[in-house]
Each structure stands twice: as structure tokens, then as C-alpha cells.
Amino acid sequence: MKQTNFIEIGFEHIPDWIDFDYIDNDLIIYSEVKELPFINDVLKTSMVTIAVCFKGRMQLDINDYPYQVKPNDILVCPPNAYIKDAWLSPDFECDILCLSTRVVTDFIPENRLWNKINILSANPIIHVDNEALQIFELCMKMLKKKLQASVSQYKKEIVYSIVKTCLLELLENIQVNENGREEFSRKEILFKDFIKLLLSVEVKPRFLTWYSDKLFVSPKHLSTVCKEVSGKTAVTWINEYMINDIKHLLLNSDKSIKEISDYYNFPNCSFFGKYVKGHTGYSPGEYRRFLIDDRNASQI
Questions:
Q1: How many Cβ atoms from other residues are within 10 Å of residue 214's Cβ?
Q2: Which of 66, 191, 202, 214 is the most buried (most CB within 10 A)?
Q3: By the 8 A CB rule, do 279 and 239 touch?
């Protein structure tokens, strides 16, 4: 079993290996992404991430579902998504804009864009025509040029006006991509709401009925929609997130097996042990030793 590290990224913590062009409390811009040091890690970001691809290809998993980004694609990754297994072609070129949720919700009235971004959890890639791509490219060039300029009285206001233009262009292209997809969009919305609910609770309930009750649908309908939209049933999503959370505590905390079992509301250590072994092939203690040994070996 391949061990992966879990890295959380937010405006309050940006790893040294990200060579960004600009950063403040609400905005990050960077372009140099040809080598991603976190390629073997699981990345969780608290930001809205917008990547505009101009050349080459990128493959990555978002919430354990594979996607491929190609020229004229815009990848919109909502906050709290899990990103892993990134691969870039040698000629890959893109600009990346990371925004706080405050910027997205404040700049676009009535939360229109925020709602669309959450829906994109089910299908986060928007394909645009050459004219739209040129507009995004121009916006990013303007942002970089203004940010490199000397300090002026209205510099920040101008920068955020350009950002708002980018967001409005994004909203317009999302709506163009959604034409003729009303029925499927309802399923995407339900899947989005399920993932959002799953991510919103630190201690995730293991029973499908908890989620279906919160979403006011039957367990069967929720599972069917998840399978159709993502290729996985709702129970599979719950278990995968649950095991990821358990793995993180086993590897990165000093909690005992009993403490972790109690923390995740298992009835007893025996039941917890069977659950972990059923999904990993290891008992909790064995899995902890495996994860620690594998991490140590990778650091040699």
C-alpha cells in the first residue's frame, strides 16, 4: 500500500515550494507549476482555485475522481476538495488564481458564482472557446502587470476590479456550459450537496441514512445519483473519507487506538478494528506501524 502525506493549504499557510507571483489574505496568483512537489501527497486547500490551461495537459484526482485538463480548459476547484496524483506534461502552461470565499461571495451579487462553484464539485472543468481563453489570458496579464507596478493610491482597488472581471467571465462561461443540461445539473447539485455535507463534519457519520435525511432524499436515490455522477456509491464516498480521516490521526497524532475509536464514535475497539481491517487489510495498530515505517523509508 502506497503511503501519502496530507497537506492542508490556506492563506495562513503557503508552503515554501509554491513560487507565487502575488499573495495577500484573499488572493494568490502563480504560474510556475511545471513541477509539483506535492505529486505524491494529498492536498486539501481552503481556497477557491481557478486554473486556466493554455498549453499541454494535466491529470489529477479531485475527491478520488480522475480528471484531465487540456488547452482551453478552466479547472475550478472548490474549497475543502482533496487533490492528489497530479501529473503534468512537459509543455504544460497555466495561470492559477486562488481566492478566499469572501472575495467570491462579496464580488458577485446574490452568491450566483458561489452556488455555481459548489455545483462544479461534480464536474469541475469548463471548456471555453479561443475568444474566452484570450480574455482570461489578458486578465491574468493585467493582474500581474499591475501587481508588479509601484504602489499607487488605487492599486488594490484596480487589482480587485480585474479579479471581479475574471469572476464575471467565469460565471458567464459556466452558464454557457450548462445550457441544455438542466436534468443532469439537478443530479450534480445533489452530489455537490452530499460532498459538501460530508466535508462539513469533522467526525463523519458512517450511516447513509444520516446524509439522506439531511438532504431530504431516500438513501437509494442518493446512492444512485452519486454512482451516476461520480462513478462511486454514496457509501463508498463515506468510507473513503472516513478511512482518510482515520489514517491522518493514526499517522499524525499520539492518540491511542481506543481514543481514535471513541473519537469517531465506534461502539468499541473491536468494531473499529474490523472496520479498519476491512478497508485497509491491516488492524489499526498494524496500519499505524505501516504508515509510520513507510513515511520514514520515504525520507531516507
A1: 15
A2: 191
A3: yes
Q: What is the mean pLDDT of residues 58-77?
A: 87
Residue 195 in contact with residue 121, Cβ under 8 Å? Answer: yes
Residues listed for the chain: 300
- Residue 247's alpha-carbon distances to 82, 233, 257, 279, in angstroms, are 14, 21, 11, 11
20-29, 111-120, 168-177, range with the lowest pLDDT: 111-120
Residue 82 DSSP SS3: strand
What distance in Å separates the CA atoms of residue 122 and residue 26, rounded to the nearest whole number?
Answer: 25
- Which residues have CB under 8 Å from 277's CB, separation 6+? 283, 284
Give the amino acid at 12: E
Q: Once rounded to an integer, what is the mean pLDDT over residues 123-135? A: 90
Q: Helices marked H in 90-233 — which ranges?
A: 101-107, 112-119, 130-148, 155-178, 182-200, 208-215, 219-230
Name the residue among 242, 269, 234, 240 with its Cα closest to residue 255. 269
Give CA 296 to chain center in angstroms: 27
pLDDT grade, residue 237 (50/70/90)? Answer: confident
Q: Going edge to edge, which strands form the sheet with 125-127?
A: 22-23, 27-30, 93-99, 48-55, 73-77, 125-127
Cα(235)–Cα(63) distance, integer angstroms: 14
Instruction: Note if the pTM is more than 0.90.
Output: no
